[in-house]
Amino acid sequence: MSNEKDKSVVKVGDYIIIQRQNYTKLHKITQNGLAMLGKDQIELGSIVGKPVWTTYKMEPKKNGKRVFVLRECTSSESLAEQLKKDLSSGSDNRNIFDDGRSQLLSTEEIVGLRSSGLSGQAIVGHLIENSKTFRDKTEYSQEKYLKKKEKKYFEYVTVRWPTIRLISEIMFRTDPVKIMGLRIDTLSQIITNIGMHSHGTYMLYESGCQGLVVAAMLNNMSSGGHLIHIHPGNSPQKQAILAMNYTSDHMSCLTSVNIYSLLRKLLQDSSVVSEDANSSVSDNNKEAAEDNKDFSHVDIKEEEDIKPDTNSENNETVSTVSKENEVVIKNETESTNLINEKKRKHSDNDENTSKKPRWELETEKAADILNTHKADGLVIIAREHPTNILTALLSFVAPSRPFVVFSPCREPLLELYVTLKGKNNTTGLRVTETWLRSHQILPSRTHPDILTSGGGGFLLTGIVVEQESSTQEQH
Question: Mind listing the pLDDT tens digit for each residue in 278-293?
């Protein structure tokens, strides 16, 4: 595993978080090193080899386009703090009317200022000078106006290392449907309810969540732990996993398998074990029967070979013996060829075994882990109805271990709740919903955010109970 010094330096191929004020964007460093922040294009070549948490100033290239290069600086300066020092303000806003004619600069002239390569502070200064109502506004209104313009013309960006919280917030802000409306507070409840520890073995079924829950659970794993990521398609979703820049040692804890391949492999292994136990009793009888069959065949053949033919002459006898010799030689040749063919097929099978596809090797690894030690927890994040999935995977969870099922709607979880209540393999069933609302904390301006999501989904939690039949069989 790489050390902390290597992890804090930006390299080509790494994912980083570009922060511009409160706006954050996930980006992968490529060879050309270009990124888009709204309509602004910035060149990221200068940040390669630099540590994270470094602040850069966006300087225009003066080529008539909104292309910027990054220059390292020690700190960022607020436009509001810079511009409001020498400005006077009015007592109230009663004489200010929003008629759309307070700004003397036209849209084309403002665009020309940006194309000419002026800094953000200079552009905002021109806007203030050509505003007829800015100096008549109150100090609070002026500060609000400057902060609004600062969001558009802010010149500083900070490079940060990806974290689960940042990736979750970015995905939820850009397109919450792609992660099934899973918020960071619900994600934290999943990790808490499953009771993760770094050396445990956990199963996770995730479909349609961009690998966000996989990355969050893998973040709590270390060498010696196992996370079996079960997915329904041919390949799993790994966007959030790749964004975390996990090392190869950390990724060795993860095993991604298809649910149908895994269940088929586990059922085959269980049937093979039962067949071996049933067949071990009758192996000796079968071998004795096969030996008797071979010996009886040899005895009959020897009697036919030495039986005298009284009706044939000497020539016919000689020809018969030669034909029999030819048949024997031919049979020996055929048997030799058959043995060689079997050896060749066996060697081909060995070569095919060493050239198994990756998905088959992952399936065998996951099956071996579950056959050796049952899972310490089960998490299901499914777009499908979770009843059949939970029923199929619950038998591979160890007794007294928790399970968590997430759904953006509560109706599937209530149906699953009723189904589990009718069985005796779970206990402590609960259907919960978390609620998180951010608040703005400022002097004399503390209030909750008005624009927020309606909910972050529902959770069904419970604990697996050991079956009485299995207990009686052990005794």
Answer: 454 344 444 434 444 4
